[in-house]
Structure formats: C-alpha cells, structure tokens
Amino acid sequence: MYRADEDYGYASMPDFGDHVDNGIFSQILEMDESEGERDFSEPLVTNFFEQAEETFVKMDRALNDKNLDELSSLGHFLKGSSSTLGFNKIRDSCQIIQQYGHKLSVDGTPEADDTICLEKIGEALKSVKVDTAELEKAMKKFFGQTD
Amino acid sequence: MPAPTPQPTPSLTPTPGLSVLSCLSKPPSLDPGPIQPPSPSLSGSVSASPAQSQSTFAVAGTANVTDIFYYSPLALLELSPSCCITRASARFLSDWRLSADQCIGHQLHLFLEKQIHPSTSISQVHAVIDAIDDAISARAERTSKPINTNHEAACRARVLPVFNGHQLLAITLEWQERPTALIESELVKPGLSTDEAFRILVQALKDYAIFLLDTTGHIATWNTGAELLKGYTRDEIIGKHFSVFYGKDDLEAGKPDMELAICLREGRVEDEGWRYKKDGTRFWANVIITAVYKHGLHVGFGKVTRDLTERKASESRLITAYEESEKLKSDFLANMSHEIRTPMHGMLSACSLLLDTDLTVRQRDIANIMDESGKVLLQVINDILDYSKLASGSFSVTSDIVGVASIIASVVRGVQTTLHPAVHFELFLAPDLPKSVQGDPLRFRQIVQNLVGNAAKFTEKGSIRVKASLQAEDVDSYTVLTEVTDTGIGIPENSTAHLFTPFTQFDVTTTKRYKGTGLGLSISKSLSELMGGRIGYRPNQERHGSVFWFTARFKKIKSLGQIQDWKNQLASKDGSLLPAPNTEAVDLQAELAKVASTRTLLLVEDNVINQKVMLGILRSIGFRNVQLASNGAEAVNMVRAKPVGYDLVLMDINMPILDGHQASSRIRESGINIPIVAMTAYALKGDRERCLEYGMNDYIPKPVDKKYLIRTLAKWLLSKSDVRRSVGPGQLGPPELGLALLDKNRALLEKNLNKVQDPSSVVEVTNEEQKEQPGAESVSG
C-alpha cells in the first residue's frame, strides 16, 4: 500500500489512487512537524471530513428543495477545501454540482432544463459521497486511527 | 312587707352564683305570680296602688298600675332589687316571642343567657348587668349595649332604677330594638356566623367588594364597596349568579364554575383578570373566593374583589420603561462593543507584529503581557457583545447542519492542548446520539466550548468527562443532553444560585486567579434557552468538582438516512485521471524568506480548511505576519484601518457577506494600492479578467500550489514598487488593459525568474498558464 514516491521525494506518501493529488497532499503533510505526529495534517483532514459531511447534508436538503443556487454555492464551498487538500475526486464532483447549480454543463455550455441539472447534481452527489467515504476510510488508516 | 335589702348596689352582682343565692333567699311571696303587682295584692283591682308606695297621686278611675305596665306599648321588664324578673309587658313578650312563664321569676342574667343569639358572646349579658349596676349606683337612667337575641334583633335596655328615698324598689328595663339599618339580616339568614363589628366593617368598606355567594354561586349579600365597584345596587344583584361579572372568554372557558370547584377542593381560590361592571366597562380585578363552612357544612362562598386596574396600568408602565431602558442599554453596549473591537484587533495585531521583531528578554516579557492582556480584553468585549445582543433580543439562532458529535469532539481536541498535565479527558458519546441534526452549530459549539473551557480552567488534576446523550426524541426533533463533569475546585453551595447571573464569578479570589468576564455561563444559559433547552449545575457526587449540563433541541434531518446509506455502500471507484499537478521546483523561497519576516499579508478566506492550509504554507515559506479575514467586509475594514499595514492581500473570491470582487473594488475606491492576489478554484474562462476588472493585480488558481504561490508572492513582494505604480485606482481600465499590465508585469517577472531558475521550470510555468487560462494571451518564457 505504501510506496515511496521518488518523484517527489516523500518517503511515507501512501497511494490513495486517483482520490488524491499526491503533490498537493504531500504539501500538506510537509507542514507536519514530524511524521510520527501528524499535528497539522491529521486534524485538518479530520476537519475536512466533518465539513464534507455537513455540506452533504445541506446539499441533500438543497436538492430536495430544488435550490440550484444553494447547490452551486455548496459545491463551490466544498470544492475549495477539497482541492486545497488535493482530494481530486471530491473536487471534481463538487465542480459538477457547482456547474449544474449555475445551469451550466461541465464544459460551460448553458443547460436550461432544471430537471436535468438536478439529475446531474443528484448523480454527482451520490458519487461524491461514495468517494468521500472511501477516502475517509483510507485516510483513517493512513493516520492510524481506528474506526 | 317586702324587705328588699336597703343597700342599693351590692344586691346586684354579675356573679351568677351570688344572684341565684340572693334570689333564693327571698321569701316566696316576694316573687309574685305573673302580671301581679310586686306585693301581695290587697285589692287585685283597678285603683289599688302598692301599699308601700303610699301613693299620694292615685286618682280614682285611673287604670290599674299592673295593667298599665302590662299593656304599655313598650317592651318592659320589671326586676326586683335582686334582679329577679317580676313583671313583663305584653309587648316584651310578643317582641321576644316568649310566654310569661319563660321570664317571670327568673334571674335576669340566667334568663338573658338563654335569650341571646348562640353566635354572640356571653359578655353581652354582662354588659346589661353592668348597665344595671351602673344605673343603681348613679340612681339614674342608663342604656346598655345592644345584645343580639334569639329572635334576631339587636336590643338595648334602658335601665330605670326606681328608688324610694335610699331604698331601691325595683328596676325597670325598657328594651329598645336598635335601628336595623346596619344589620345584615341576609347575612344571618344563611346561618353564617357573623359579628356585628365585622358586619359593619364589611358593609362600610368602599374599596373592596365583599359579598357572599350561596352554594350554587348566587349572590346573597352586597356591600357598599361592591355597589361602588360593580355598579349594581343591592336589589338588582341579590339572587343573581356571580358569573354576571365575567367576560365572554372566561364564561366560555367555564371559569366561574371552575373557580368554585377549585375553591371547594382547596378552600380558596385567587384569580387576577378582567371583570365587568354593570355598564359594561371592565376593570382588572384581584378576586379571592373562600369557601364558607358552618358547623362543617358548606353554606356558601365569601368573595372579595379588588380593583387593580390602576395598579396594573402603573405596573405595565414601569415594565415598559424598564424594558425600554434595558434595550437602550443593550443596544448601546452592542454598538459600543463593536466599535471597541475594531481598534482592539489593531492593537493585538500590532502587538503580535512587535513580538515577531527582535526584542530583548525584558521587552519580550512586556510585549507578551500586552498581548495576553489584550486577548483577555478582547474575550471580555466579545462576551459583552454576545451578552448585550442576547439581552437586546437581537441575537438569532441560525438553522444549519449540526454535527453534534463532531463539534463536541473538536472542542475537546481544542481544549486538550490547554489542560494541566495531571488532567485527562474522557469523552463519552452515546451510541444513539444523532450524527447530524438541524440547528445552530456555532452556538452549540459556543456552549460546549464554554463549559469544557471552564472545566479545563478550574481543574488542576483528575479528569474532565464530557458526555453527550440523547435525552428525548420525538417525531421531528432530538433533545441532546451534554454533561461536563470535572474534578476541579467545585462551587461553594452558597454560590450556586448566582452561577448563571451575568457578571458574577463565584468568588473574588478566583477572579484574580482565573481570568474571565463572568459572562460565559449567562451567555450559555441564554443560548441554550434560545435552542429550546436548559442549563444547570450540580456538584460532582463522586469526587470533588462540578457537573455542568445543558440540553438543546434540534430538528431532525429527514435525508440523514441517505447519507448513511451512501457511506455504508462504499461503491466502486470511479473517475478519470486528472493531469498531474504542477510541482516544479522553483527555489525562490530563500529569496522570499529573506523579506518574508518583514512583510505582513492579509489572507481573506472563508473556508477554515483553506485558511489553515494557506497559513501553513505561508508559514513554511517564512511568513510570520499573516492576518486573517473571513469575508470581504472584514478585509475591507482591516485594510482601511491600516492602509499601509499590509504588503499584500490574498483574496478568495467567493465569500459570504462581501465577495472578493466587491471587497477589492472597495479597497481600490479607498485609494489603497496594495497588491491584491485573487485565489479562486478551477478558474473559468473570464474569471481572471474579472479579477483584474475589479482592481485585483494577480491571480492564483486553487488549490494553491506552494511553488506557484512562491512565484506569485515573489513577483509582487520582490518587485513591489513597480507594481504599486502600475495599478492605481485611476487606472482601472478595461480588462484588456489590466491584462496587458499583468502580462507586462509577468513578462518582467519571468525575466527575473530566469535569472534564478533553470529553464525547465520556466517552461512549466508557461505550460500551466496556458492550461489554466486558455483564453489569455500568455507570455512565453
């Protein structure tokens, strides 16, 4: 599971697959004072999952209310933190949610049909939850937390 | 010859025993039969006068004295000098509803004792005897106090002692029924016990309506006060049901009958409310109804009504005035606190800047004290602001998602670092605790923070246990109980009452030892009440210390189940590979680090995670002076407060309250030319142009790459003078111009960079820019 990432020289960088941008995430890990004590990254990641959890609940509600504006802004919000940590899969789904919340397709062309927008957001939300859960599990393992 | 004792006074003694004796000592002949003259009659006929009277004025043909006495229109009794009744007039007998046998020959006091009303005191009899004694000693007419008789009259006796020289011949009592105007015969009829003094009092009282109801609630008596207060005369109201005084609402609610029922059950009922007068106007009444019993039998109700309209009006005026002044005070505090906070931030920032400079040990100590005191003062101000907001009612609880467990865990994590080493934390989260609920996460956190923070502050060894559990649950809400148990200094019993009172700390010595405003708990109390909960304290039963608890009610989130489902599924991986990030190694850091310690940055970012990461990156580059603003408005204020205090602003675009674009515009409008670097995620085509349009100087994509950030910061901080000249408030041209300027700067920078970089990295930069801003005219290396 753990492999040395020689390209970047981060000895203990695990492989999170396509979930995580190693370059960005290693930047975060670098800010820890020691590898034994992940005093910076660990609470940060924990905070992120709390934030994600809370955002998903809000998204569910907004989706239920067919509130595209709110969905877009929530998408943007979580996209911010996920991309900061390099959690790309989450970021990408958030981008989709943000775009369709603006009634735009991913490539920026207008999508006038609300129902399609909501449908796309629904799909993205589904997959982002799955991705998040998966990543959270992996992160916990990485930080040596027990479930 | 009758031989009455010559001494006038001693013969009459109020002591029954003596009187009886004296009566018995008389020869039987002295007590003649009914309607007979006092002496053995010689004549028994018309003209005879008592022999001993030796009447000189008897005229033939005048009526027999005995008859005159008997038929007199007055209620008369004749007594022997020993107070034995010797004669009674017909009027007396009829008034008192007696036969002659019932009085003649009886000792007066014994007779009267039988005749007085059972409810009255025997002392009334003594009063009559006293009057007789008095009359005899004075040899003059006297009138006794009235007595209440069996035949329900109040009678007083006019005492006429009859003397022949020094010899007392007889005593005549003329009984007068007192005028009855003041006597409530109605009161007596239901058989209720009364005393005349009280009756007069009740009758005369004008400020209280006092009246009796019968067992069914019909009005039986009526006093002056009742007449004045309710406007009904006695005749109009007697016999009516008392519900006539109640308003429509009360009648519909069945209040009159309810009151009687309660009164019967509890003996008494008191009520305040509107009552109605005869003319339909209402008054605010205090009503007390008392059940009245006679010999254990319920006979009716006594009702006392007071008009409190005026008092109520003045009370409500007072309350209004008080509330008004409280609100003014709170508003003032809220406004002032805000005004105070802004310069306070400035002072603290300056202080932390000072601490970052080279200081002597002594200077550092002093600066640390300033910093620490400043922080305490800021906390005080924040508390007061919160408190005054709460007090002025302008505090609202937002509705958002609350992760109860995660908030508690995060507070505990935060406080853990400040704990004494001999204290350990125990965190219990009940398994049934809802993970996410709807409520105000910030306020919930504030209470937890306060209670846990207090526990940490006051506990030097032992443990702090934080326990959260589900106290109650209904269809759409949860009530969460959070308990914080510590083994700290505890709270003296006499202080527990004031724990939640504002501005109190439980003793002065702790104020000195433990910093604080004394507002935390009172704020927590208000907050928990705002969240539909309660807060409380009890001593720690197991060990010395305190237990603080609070409850908060949260709404349920209907879609919560969904989240859990998705979480559990852990479905298959999916998603496309993204291009590898740009991680070129640019070593501008060393150069930047040289200036970093003297540069102050303002980071404007609403997402805390991004804040933390950015702070971490900036610190790792060497920036020690990074100020935070969590929205555009805050940033504008901070920059305006210190126009030359910052060297660069890192500005997030999408933020609540005031977004990055607007914030930048306002900063430029204030004539401040500070470099502003936008940070925005996944920039779309046109985003960059828009940033420039709003007066920003540059732009970095999110997620912020450290190397990229270093390059950008280097560009603006190392070539600062150039930048400040190039973009001013007057030069906000069309996007093309801004872009051109930017590109010009970039070109300059790239040139500079070339000196320190290897060629490959330059290529990377160019590639990335082309990738990120496909629409922009990119500069080639």
UniProtKB/TrEMBL annotation, chain A:
The HPt domain extends over: 37-139
For this entry, the protein name equals Signal transduction histidine kinase
One GO cellular component term of this record is: nucleus
Secretion signal span: none
Keyword Glycoprotein present in the record's keywords: the answer is no
* Organismal lineage: Eukaryota, Fungi, Dikarya, Ascomycota, Pezizomycotina
Name the keywords, alphabetized.
Kinase, Phosphoprotein, Transferase
Q: CDD domains this protein is in?
A: HPT
* Sites bearing Phosphohistidine, chain numbering: 76
Source species: Cercophora scortea
Name one molecular function that GO assigns to this entry.
histidine phosphotransfer kinase activity
Q: Which GO terms describe its biological process?
A: phosphorelay signal transduction system
UniProtKB/TrEMBL annotation, chain B:
Domain named PAS is located at 194-252
State where composition is biased (Pro residues). Answer: 1-13, 29-40
- Do you know which PANTHER family this protein is assigned to? HYBRID SIGNAL TRANSDUCTION HISTIDINE KINASE J
Histidine kinase domain: from which residue to which, for each copy? 335-556
Lineage runs: Eukaryota, Fungi, Dikarya, Ascomycota, Pezizomycotina
Q: Which residues form the Response regulatory domain?
A: 600-717
**Per its UniProt record, what SMART domains does this chain match?**
HATPase_c (SM00387), HisKA (SM00388), REC (SM00448)
Query: What keywords were assigned to this record?
Result: Phosphoprotein, Two-component regulatory system
Q: Report the source organism.
A: Cercophora scortea
The modified positions for 4-aspartylphosphate read 652
Please report the name of this protein according to its UniProt entry: Two-component system protein A
Question: What Gene3D superfamilies does the entry give?
Answer: 1.10.287.130, 3.40.50.2300, Histidine kinase-like ATPase, C-terminal domain, PAS domain
What segment(s) does the record annotate as region Disordered?
A: 1-48, 758-781
Query: According to its UniProt record, what is one Pfam family this protein matches?
Result: PAS_9
Q: Please give the Gene Ontology molecular function terms for this protein.
A: phosphorelay sensor kinase activity
Q: Where is the PAC domain?
A: 269-320
